[in-house]
Write a structure and sequence with these properties.
The complex is a heterodimer of chains A (165) and B (159). Chain A is of the alpha+beta class and 165 residues long. Chain A has one domain: Pnp Oxidase, Chain A. Chain A is 16% helix and 35% strand. The longest helix of chain A is centred in the middle third of the chain and has 8 residues, at 58-65. Chain A starts with 5 loop residues before the first helix and ends in a 15-residue tail after the last strand. Chain B is of the alpha+beta class. Chain B has one domain (7-148): Pnp Oxidase, Chain A (Roll), CATH 2.30.110. Chain B is built from five helices and seven strands, in the order αββββαβαβαβα. A seven-stranded antiparallel β-sheet of chain B has the order 2-1-5-6-7-4-3. In chain B, a hairpin with a 2-residue loop joins β3 (36-41) and β4. The relative contact order of chain B is 0.23. The chains are: A alpha+beta (165), B alpha+beta (159). At the A-B interface, β1, β2 and β5 of A face β1, β2, α2, β5 and α3 of B.
Chain lengths: 165, 159
């Protein structure tokens, strides 16, 4: 059973609050992988990762046809955050039924709290030459984490949660 | 389409290393670190993998050679690219010997395998209107000019 540690919860926040830039890895249904960096990240309950849907293209298409994803810490790398989280994702977009449920996560609760993420946690730490000119949020990717493994050198593949990796 | 890595792309890849994403034929993704990387051609990158890193992705690569990777650390946002191609896991031969020796000498990595990725797709991942823009096929000089209008920073070489 997955239960995030306090360290994981602190790492899975926006970089400006001591969190991390993460990579969201997806795949088409027939196995073509995709990897994209994400800045708006948070945890929800003890086993869910939230990521803003702002500029998702292939990631979004992949999730719509195949919910299997992996999330890993891109930066900072060498602070003990050697984690890869694996699970099933949905992109809760505006217009979803308000009572939609994803493994216990309710669409209304998620959209009410994180639906205007750029305003609530603006990218103040992002340098001006790479910050996006206008953030348009279309939804929130909710990852229900089912397992995880380490990518710490020498320990790659080791289970993070005492179950299957 | 043809991929032509710029000198800046190569510098970010080689200095920071990369996150390597593979997937089963059924679409289950896996990711591992490529801590030591060298561009072996304008459309080819070799990663030295320790045995535990190679062992994680080897069963998947055997059935599905497709690989996607992005740059590690601040390269995830400063080197806003996604690289895609096909990977071959080498455990012997000229390329393995050369990359493994350099990885040991420069980073102290004991390589159990070398993942050689032959690139076929290149995408911009800069957040905003250019996110997802496909860059392979752009003539090399045009690509350098396109990139230099947006970024000029090159990461410092690690000691």
């Amino acid at each position: 059973m997955v239960q995030f540690t306090q360290e994981m919860k602190e790492g899975l926040r926006v970089p400006g609050k001591g969190g991390s830039l993460v990579y969201l890895c997806t795949s088409s249904r027939d196995g073509k992988p995709n990897i994209a960096a994400m800045r708006f990240v948070a945890t929800y309950m003890d086993d869910k990762i939230l990521i803003a849907d702002m500029f998702l293209l292939k990631t979004k298409a992949n999730i719509k046809e195949n919910p299997n994803v992996a999330v890993t810490i891109c930066h900072p790398l060498e602070e003990g955050r050697w984690w890869v989280f694996r699970g099933k994702a949905v992109d809760i977009e505006y217009g979803f039924p308000r009572d939609f449920d994803w493994y216990g996560a309710n669409a209304t609760d998620i959209l009410d709290e994180w639906g205007d993420w750029n305003r609530s946690e603006p990218p103040d730490e992002v340098p001006p030459d790479i910050v996006f000119p206008k953030a348009v949020q279309r939804g929130i990717v909710v990852v229900h984490v089912e397992s995880g493994y380490s990518i710490e050198p020498g320990h790659t593949g080791e289970d993070l949660f005492g179950g299957r990796a | 389409m043809a991929v032509n890595l710029t000198d800046r792309m190569k510098a970010w890849i080689e200095t920071m290393g990369c996150y390597l994403c593979v997937a089963t034929r059924e679409g289950v993704p896996l990711v591992t670190l490529g801590r030591y990387a060298r561009a072996t051609a304008d459309d080819e990158v070799a990663f030295a993998l320790a045995e535990d890193e190679a062992r994680l992705i080897e069963p998947v690569l055997v059935q599905n050679p497709r690989v996607a990777f992005g740059v590690s650390r601040q390269g995830g946002i400063r080197a806003a690219y996604q690289f895609k191609g096909t990977g071959e896991l080498l455990r012997s031969g000229e390329v393995f010997d050369a990359i493994a020796a350099r990885a040991k000498e420069e980073r102290g990595i004991d390589a159990g395998a070398v993942l050689l990725v032959r690139l076929s797709e290149l995408y911009c991942t800069k957040p905003g209107y250019e996110a997802g823009l496909r860059l392979d096929g752009m003539p090399p000089d045009d690509l350098v000019a396109w990139e230099s209008r947006r970024w000029k920073d090159v990461p410092r070489k690690k000691a």
